Amino acid sequence: MKLLLKLLLVPMLLDIKIHALPSSGGYFRNEDPHLVNSTLPSHLPTTSAPPPTSSIPILKPDTSSPCDLIEEAAALHCIGPLVDYAADLSNNVLHPPLSAVEMTCDKYNQYMMCTQGVRPDCRQSRAPNIEFMYETICEEKFAAIMKEEKACLLEVENDKNVKECFVNKTNTLRDETPDTVPTPTQNYECTVIQAYVDCLIEREEATCRDAVKIEISFLSMLAKRNSEARCELNTDATKARPKAQPLEECDTQGNCKCRLPGYYYEAARKKCLDVDECESLSSGCSQKCVNLPGTFECTCDQRFYKLAADNRSCERIDQSPMWLFFAHGQSVWNISTDGKSFQLQRAGLQKTAMIDIDVKENRLYYADIGANVIERMNIEGTFPQAVQRFDVDGLEGIAVDWIGRNLYSLRREDVLVQSLDGRFRQSVYKNVMKLPRSIALLPAKGIMFVTDWSANAFIAAASMDGSHFRKIVTERITWPNAVAVDVFAEKIYWADAFLDTIESANMDGTGRRIIIADAGSVPHVFGLAIADDFLYWTDWTYRGILRANKHNGENITVLAQTALLPYSLKVFHKTLQPEETSTCATRGCDQLCLLGENGAATCACGEGFDLQTDGKKCRSNCTESQIECGGADPKCISKIYLCDGLAQCSNQADELKCPPRICLPGQFQCHDNRKCLPPGGLCDDVADCADSSDELYCPHKTTPRGEFVLNSPTSSRKERSADYQDNHL
């Protein structure tokens, strides 16, 4: 099919002489990096010059061209938007959609403006067929007719039976023997157009007959544009026309098969049906797969990737190196994807397991549970900046929204969101989790994915604006320790540390399949990330970082081993956080702007603030159990953190008129000044202070103690461990 479309489009797109340099050995690229040696089991493997200038011939310019160099470049540049319709191989690519006549003519007008500095004879010589086609569509009377029939034209263009008929007929043309190839009086283009006309005439639906006539009339004008082509279309439905050769072939015994590849014979219906290679995953596409009758097409995000020679893999255009960042308990490290280069990113931490990165601002975010703080720092090594100094105990995953510019996190039963600088924070979902573990975002779609490893474990997909929370995986799941999103393929991957599997699914939970199911390869995954065609993960049993093919789990490789348990893992590269135009940029929100599904964006306010009737501004509404920070950083904070030795307010309103401190900064000092408590000892329904002041001002009383619980990697029965400190941090 792809070859067919190329053969069809070439004569219609350009009528110019193209000079190409002869190949002298193809292009060069770096070979796969060597893998480092490992002492792990043998079934897990561990981990250069252009041709001489004299070989390139000097080509003489075509002096017969009506264009000079500048005009030719300008004309070819301007023609690009006019042929966008041919980019989607799943649609009819004979011409732009007639139902979109307004947009089509707008493009043509922009093209004419773009080429104002190009002489008409030069402009017309570059793409005469394309100009003729657009001039025909935009002729005033013809355009008016198409506008009146817009709805019906759209119906005909989207008719699946017509599309399948057209592809089947052209596939048959491709496979015909030489004696049935069109004669010189009927060129290949004419034959293809006739095939589409036949499909329109054979259309079974009785509706939109006028739209079919418009389509056939336009195709006839295209076919007759060149008198030398001598293309006379048969548009009379009453004339006898040879039927297309059936796909089914049966022998005398009644055994049937399909004549063309890409189909399978269904005995119950006695018919050949299309094989959906995309659904069966036999396509092996790196990113997107478009199913077509009898075949399929792999596509790549053209902003960052190009389709490789195998027509399946997507090659990254920006070949700058990727880096892996991983949490290591008391430190955060980065490592090259070949495992050869290590660098300490942040040291001196207490209990750090959760990290994420922001490519746009070149920053690393991490949660230090021991110090009760979320911090961020420039990856180049500048001093860290506190984002959150309270309510960090019990925090699980964190995730940066690189488009809406927010930070999401899981804590106890809630899903939280806050501005990247930490000034405003709210619970976007309350009481939806029991034992949360991991979170991943797809900001371009306004969707987040969260995992819970309670007795009724699940993976949920939720709108990032708090409007819709739904569980998408609830069966055959126990300890979903990690979840990651393949941004370009729009699939999720997760690792189950109890079942010893890595699986994938569509974003709605359908199409689930196992990538790796081997206790010897993935005995206890904690962190998971995706980049290009690879899965990267951290494993507690191996105390290492591993990699494998994301499609089939093959070529499992140990990149590095660590002294302590490795935790959260992220890949740093600008390709993996593609910039998108955000509605938030023009929404004018006072505090928070939350992305939703279908391009929505909603203004929201931090805790202690109410959204006003304009849907943008926020007004303070601090409760009796909170104090209001004034100045340039207005927010409400719990009185629990009043006089704790750490200024939560930028104007230090929470640390004014305080009694003498006998406790360390960050510790809770009982109001009778007789005892010091760690943050995790507050609001746990147990009065640790003699005056019970540690149970005052609590936002709720039903939540259990916020311990940071992790799975134990050493238990043969895989029982849950009870405390973060038991994990050798």
Structure description:
The protein starts with a helix and ends in a 52-residue tail after the last strand. Among the domains are: 143 residues, no CATH class; 67 residues, Ribbon (Laminin); 247 residues, Neuraminidase, CATH 2.120.10; 27 residues, no CATH class. The chain has a four-stranded antiparallel sheet, with no helix packed on it. It has a four-stranded antiparallel sheet with strand order 12-13-14-15, with no helix packed on it. It has a four-stranded antiparallel sheet with strand order 16-17-18-19, with no helix packed on it. With 729 residues, it is of the alpha+beta class. Helix 7 crosses helix 10, helix 8 packs antiparallel against helix 9 and helix 9 packs antiparallel against helix 10.
